[in-house]
Amino acid sequence: MRYLLVLFALLFPGLAPAAGPEAETARCHAEIPCPLGDRSYHVKEPDDWDGVTPLPVLLHFHGWMRQGALIVKHGRISGATRRRGVLLLAPNGAGKTWDFWTSDTDDVDFAAAVIEDAAKRYPIDRSRIYVSGYSYGSAMAWRYACENGDGVAALLAVSGTLRQSETCPAAPAEVRHVHGTSDNVMGFPFGPGGDTTYPVKLWRDTLDCNGPPRDLGTWDVTRHDTFRRSQWTDCNGGQVTLDVHKRGHFIPRGWIARQLDELLDLPHAYP
Description:
By secondary structure, the protein is α/β, with parallel strands linked by helices. The chain has helices at 2-11, 21-27, 68-71, 78-82, 106-121, 136-148, 201-206, 255-263; strands at 34-36, 39-44, 55-61, 87-91, 124-134, 154-158, 174-180, 214-220, 226-232, 239-245.
């Protein structure tokens, strides 16, 4: 039967059925990239999605010399989104990296186009678009939120920042950042006098946060990592959360999952 269908399509291409949205989606999924101009991205649906309910989105920027195909298989990223009803979008950086150094970058427009293209394939919940990244990808997530933050519900950044002296024309409704004080790749940005709240100074300034943070103490997901959380809620239209640990440059187990649980008002779970 399959042979006859293929033969029919070859002999009568004009009569072949048009590919609908489901067929288009099937062509790019997980490790099969979705083409977008001369670039591409990867997409991973959540488990047990009914095909109708609008999906929260996590747009995640990969680290240096990586690609989106890794992200959609990554247990600490895809493992978190799949179990929480979140659509994962993983753009591919040109040359396996990102141009986040200045506002004059094509990567912000590309990432915005990824969201719009995904919206043609899936029903997305635009009130719950989250942006994340790791290492260089974290810095790119900062850049995206800095230039296009009005459409971002939350920034979830792991071990990478912009210069704290940057000026951002926009900001997400919420910023969450995690960084290790022993990071020797994207070094922990200590402030004057060794201030460990300095990594989010840019967002505190942009959101006009007042006063010192609330020290929410320590928390952990697994025995491997303990985080000290500082939070600024007295801000003009948003809030900033900083989690600091003592280790180096990596994506902590369960950190992205915990942020999604809190943002989506879900019971805490691991992974």
